[in-house]
Design a protein that fits this description.
Helix content is about 65%, strand content about 0%. By secondary structure, it is mostly helical. The two termini are about 20 Å apart.
C-alpha cells in the first residue's frame, strides 16, 4: 500500500492496479488509502486507475465519485474510466454518460490496450 504514494507515476499506477485486483477482501485496509491518494493525485492515468480500483473495492461508495468525474472539467482518461465504472456498477445510463462518451470520441486512443485484462496490467 505504501507504493500508492510513490513519487514515480508508473509505480503509483501499478500499485493502485494491484490493490484493485485484490477485490473486496482488501477493502477494509485499502479503501482509505486509495481515497486519501485520490484526494491529492494529479496524474490523469493514476486518477483513472484509482477510480477503477475503488470501484472494485466499494462499487456503491464509489458511484458518487464516478458520476462526478463525468464532466468536461475531468481529464479524458478519468472521464472514460468514470463512464466504465458507472456502467459496471449498474448505474442508469443518463444524459451525462451520453455526453461524456460523445465528447471523448474517438475512444480508441483512450481505451485501446488499457481495458483488456490480458494486456492491460501495468507490468506487462
Amino acid at each position: 500500500l505504501a507504493s500508492v504514494g510513490h513519487q514515480d507515476r508508473a509505480v503509483r499506477q501499478a500499485a493502485v492496479w494491484a490493490v484493485g485486483v485484490t477485490g473486496a477482501a482488501a477493502a477494509g485496509p485499502a479503501a482509505p488509502v486509495l481515497h486519501d491518494r485520490a484526494a491529492v493525485e494529479s496524474d490523469p492515468l493514476v486518477r483513472a486507475e484509482l477510480l477503477a480500483a475503488m470501484a472494485k473495492l466499494d462499487p456503491e461508495g464509489t458511484a458518487p465519485a464516478a458520476t462526478g468525474a463525468l464532466g468536461p472539467d475531468s481529464p479524458p482518461e478519468l472521464r472514460i474510466a468514470a463512464v466504465l465504472v458507472c456502467v459496471d456498477s449498474g448505474l442508469p445510463w443518463t444524459r451525462a454518460h451520453h455526453e461524456a462518451v460523445l465528447a471523448l470520441l474517438p475512444l480508441d486512443p483512450l481505451v485501446a490496450d488499457r481495458f483488456d485484462l490480458s494486456r492491460s496490467e501495468p507490468l506487462h
